[in-house]
Design brief:
This is adenine phosphoribosyltransferase. Homodimer. Belongs to the purine/pyrimidine phosphoribosyltransferase family. The protein is an alpha/beta fold and 214 residues long. The chain is built from seven helices and eleven strands. The strands form three sheets. The protein has a seven-stranded mixed β-sheet with strand order 5-6-4-3-7-9-11, with helices on both faces. A two-stranded antiparallel sheet has the order 1-2. Helix 4 links the parallel strand 3 (74-78) and strand 4 (96-102).
Length: 214
Amino acid sequence: LHAQCSQRLLSPRMDLCHVPAAREKGWYLALMAPNVKGPNYAWLDPSRLYCHPQGLQDCVADLLQPFQGDPIDMVAGIDAMGFILGAAIAATLRKGFLAIRKAGHLCVQTLAQPYTDYSGREKVMEVRTDAVSPGLRILLVDQWVETGGTMRAAIQLVERLGGVVAADPPPPPCPTGVAAICIEDSEGGRWIWERYKCAHCVPPDLQPRFDRHQ
């Protein structure tokens, strides 16, 4: 996988046809394009992964694997890139999809939650108040969990409305939780891993490189 990553990251074109013979977990991570614009941008761009039909399908399958057999009532995706994976997961599960928005975009009654994102900026997240009923079991999805501030705010919104983002080990009735391409081994990432059932796509041997943004 290391060799695949090195070769694919250097490729200037999107290859939407190539599928490796052995599709080990995380093979599609090599499709992500590295940052060439400097520190004001995220260090990887997963857009090429989403463009690859098999890559996207396998990514969704890997994220759902820990939740096989778990009752999930709704999938919620975080503004904005979490909408892509969240909607794909909701379609796969044949469940509804809830968009958790950045403040100022919803024209209905909302619940707001301030937070600090991965870049240190203070922001506010909102969700409509009529979409989550008490006891609703929700799988929260985002593209990436770096410092954990954004995901933690989404968890707080769901739980303030009475929704369930299950703990790990989950109490009855169970186990929805958190899914992202990568959950970094940061203080915030560990906070989420310790309290909720989680899924991500990074193999253990690559995790230290992702944590160092290499």
